[in-house]
């Protein structure tokens, strides 16, 4: 009696673990992340999506010069480049600040913050001035 009970419980436990593993793989297999480089005025360049592998997370890295947003990189985390959240990581040589956020839901790494209209105007004015200077 008791031996038969343990075999039945072992098989049930194994079936439960197998079912949970399959469910976990099924749930994580359909998670996608945005993948692009986002720059002021133009937005996301090379917009694609990537499928997230189990155990990884979507990444968004925003790069700033002081408080001015320069660009963002959105992508899937990989074994070579897993996602680690970091805030105000500073590159002293270039004077850039990096903020990286991670998430694990379908398309959760939404495109980075948009520049303010005033910043976009300054950027466009600078480009126009550079263009005029190059024409002379």
Automatic annotation (TrEMBL):
SUPFAM superfamilies in the record: Snake toxin-like
Keywords noted in UniProt: Membrane, Signal, Transmembrane, Transmembrane helix
GO cellular component: external side of plasma membrane; protein-containing complex
Listed InterPro entries: LY6_UPA_recep-like, LY6G6C, Snake_toxin-like_sf
Stretches that traverse the bilayer: 118-135
Recorded GO MF terms: identical protein binding
Ranges for domain UPAR/Ly6: 30-111
Signal sequence interval, chain numbering: 1-29
PANTHER family (UniProt xref): LYMPHOCYTE ANTIGEN 6 COMPLEX LOCUS PROTEIN G6C
Protein's UniProt name: Lymphocyte antigen 6 family member G6C
Species this protein is from: Cavia porcellus (Guinea pig)
Annotated gene: LY6G6C
